[in-house]
Specification:
Blueprint (H helix, E strand, L loop, with lengths): L12 H8 L3 H9 L6 H14 L5 H5 L10 E5 L6 H15 L4 E5 L4 H12 L5 E5 L5 H9 L3 E5 L9 E4 L2 H14 L5 E6 L5 H16 L6 E5 L5 H14 L5 E4 L2 H14 L8 E3 L5 H5 L6 E3 L2 H10 L8 E3 L3 E3 L5
Parallel strand pairs: 1-2, 1-3, 3-4, 4-5, 5-11, 6-7, 6-8, 8-9
Antiparallel strand pairs: 10-12
Helix pairs in contact: 1-2, 1-3, 2-3, 5-13, 6-7, 8-9, 10-11
Length: 335
């Protein structure tokens, strides 16, 4: 990875000056908020910065005269609470460590505005590459990433158009495969239980694929429960109890992930509901605990470590733009 190559030219202070119609020294004074400049010049520089997606180079000041250069990778993930993302980071950092490349990690908490701020902060240190999670971002984030002059790799989703390189799997295909499995097993009164779909857009894609496959089979969701806040076993347990209170005749439930499915399993144990005899449970992610449950969870295993490794391999700019690593459906014992 010694020859990490940017996909495009870096937007410079000179570009901002030309766009704003002022001198470079004026741009520098505006960006540092130091020295004299007119209000109109400040406005023109701010407008040019926004249009071009320019971010200041922090290294220019902190390493001036030292002859140093940045050879690090910036990474933005949505959460550390879900083991999925630490798994991804393990694969990524192991590959980067082998090449002597450090990484700086930011956590967005599924907040697109926070992601945009993190991207701007990371790019200001002129990293060798930028790795993001998912394909949906604020327009400002996309503009910054495209103007940053670095390799950009988006991870965990292939359903959409990437900024540069993409490594992951199709969430829509995961949802469709999950629905077809339940239908093939004879389940017809199927519900859905998940967390906030406005926040976790990839969960929304899986649900869309799931419902499309049900429609192909002449079916529709029998009921759904969307819980506020992040996913967790506690939320899954409370969610299944609420869903069954409203729709007691469900014979299967598709969960947004294994955390929620584990909570649903606890709810069934507490209520004395036989799994899968009375109700089937199906998760997503194939986490380690899913296989260790008294009845191994029926789920989909995703290649999180491999996504991290392949994302690191993409930093050289070689290979295909989109790498779909697929997924594995685990039949388990709960559906």
């Amino acid at each position: 990875m010694d020859d990490i190559q940017p996909p495009g030219r870096l937007v410079t202070l000179t570009d901002v000056a030309r766009e704003a119609g002022v001198g470079e020294s004026t741009v520098s004074r505006v960006l540092r908020n130091h020295g004299s400049y007119s209000k109109r010049a400040g406005e023109r520089v701010a407008e040019a910065v926004a249009r071009l997606g320019y971010v200041p180079n922090r290294l220019a000041g902190s390493l001036a005269g030292q002859g140093a250069s940045a050879r690090l990778v910036g990474v933005v993930i949505p959460s550390l609470a879900n083991v999925v993302f630490p798994d991804l980071l393990r694969g990524l950092t192991a590959a980067l460590d082998a090449e002597g490349i450090p990484c700086v990690i930011g956590v967005s908490d599924y907040d697109p505005d926070r992601e945009e701020a993190l991207v701007a902060a990371l790019l200001s240190w002129r990293p060798a590459a930028l790795l993001l999670t998912g394909l949906e971002h604020n327009p400002g984030t996309v503009a910054l990433a495209r103007a940053g002059g670095v390799r950009v790799v988006e991870m965990i989703d292939t359903d959409g158009e990437g900024i540069d390189a993409v490594v992951g799997f199709s969430n829509r295909a995961v949802g469709a495969a999950s629905a077809r499995h339940l239908v093939a097993r004879g389940y017809r009164r199927i519900g859905y239980l998940g967390h906030d779909l406005r926040v976790d857009l990839r969960a929304g894609k899986r649900l869309a694929g799931f419902e499309a496959a049900l429609e192909e089979a002449g079916l529709a969701l029998w009921g759904r429960e969307i819980r506020p806040g992040p996913s967790s076993p506690a939320s899954g347990r409370a969610g299944l109890e609420a869903l069954l209170a409203r729709v007691p005749d469900l014979d299967a439930v598709y969960f947004s992930n294994d955390d929620m499915a584990l909570g649903g399993y606890f709810a069934c144990l507490s209520a004395g509901l036989a799994v899968p005899g009375r109700i089937a449970l199906f998760g997503f992610n194939g986490l380690d605990f899913a296989a260790a449950m008294p009845q191994p969870l029926s789920t989909v295993r995703t290649p999180r470590l491999e996504i991290g490794r392949r994302a690191a391999a993409c930093l050289t700019g070689e290979g295909p733009k989109t790498i779909d690593l697929g997924f594995e459906l685990i039949e388990g014992a709960t559906a």
